[in-house]
Amino acid sequence: MRNMRWARVRLPPPALDAALALAFAAVSLLLGQKPPPLAGWHGLNAYGDVLTLLVNLPIAARSRAPVTVTVFVCGMWAVFVAAGYWPVVNCLAPLLALYTVASLRSLRVAVGCALIMSSVWWYAGATVASTWTCGSPANRDRSRRAWACARTASCRKR
Fold first, then answer.
1. What is the pLDDT of residues 23-71, one digit of tens each?
2. What does the DSSP 8-state code read for residue 38?
3. CA distance linking residue 148 with residue 152, whole number of Å
4. Contact (CB, 8 A) for 71 and 116
5. Mean pLDDT over all residues of the chain?
6. If we measure between CA atoms, which residue out of 39, 34, 111 comes closest to residue 70?
7. Residues 94/77, Cβ–Cβ less than 8 Å
8. Which residues pair with 74 in a beta bridge?
9. What are residue 2's phi and psi, to 5 degrees?
10. pTM for the complete prediction?
11. How far apart are CA 40 and CA 53, in angstroms?
12. Which of 24, 53, 109, 158 minimizes the number of CB atoms within 10 Å of its CB?
């Protein structure tokens, strides 16, 4: 039996980054077609598709400008969450952008970018928590809402 050598294709970093950006965008757009798990979020429409592309496609420039890409991606992700879309749809691009910053920049810069990304996650969690526990018109499960509001101080005052 002969040794078989597998051909390895080596892509230059810009081409690999572009391929990752396209793959992330495709996966995010496909995931966005699924119904969100909670009633507080809504599925993607044309505006959501554009925001998804704005979150994922800048990953193509992550090797050249990692901090700028991370800040831009997290900013677009925050706009995406503020528009009421499911945050998990676009979580891969900010994670990869943060990984790139952590691997190429100092600890101080990486911690700053991690705080930016963490604040978007916190905002997403706070948004859905207030929507689900205090009741939005989209949430029709009254028994869950009543149970949660009975245990939430902000809802007791109402």
1. 999 999 999 999 888 777 888 999 999 999 999 999 999 999 999 999 9
2. S
3. 6
4. yes
5. 84
6. 111
7. yes
8. none
9. -90, 150
10. 0.76
11. 22
12. 158
Max distance between CA atoms of the chain, in angstroms, equals 78
**Is residue 136 within 8 Å of residue 40, measured between CB atoms?**
yes
Tokens of 19: 């391929």
What would the pLDDT profile of 108-151 be if each residue is shown by its tens digit?
A: 999 999 999 999 999 998 887 665 555 444 444 444 555 455 55
What is the amino acid identity at position 157? K
In this structure, are residues 36 and 65 in contact, taking their beta carbons and an 8 Å threshold? Answer: no
Q: Around Cβ 87, how many Cβ atoms within 10 Å?
A: 20
Instruction: Report the pLDDT value the prediction gives residue 140, as an integer from 0 to 100.
Output: 43
**Which of 62, 121, 66 shows the shortest CA–CA distance to 90?**
121
Two tokens, residue 100: 């790139």
3-state helix, strand, coil in the chain (%, to 5): 70, 0, 30
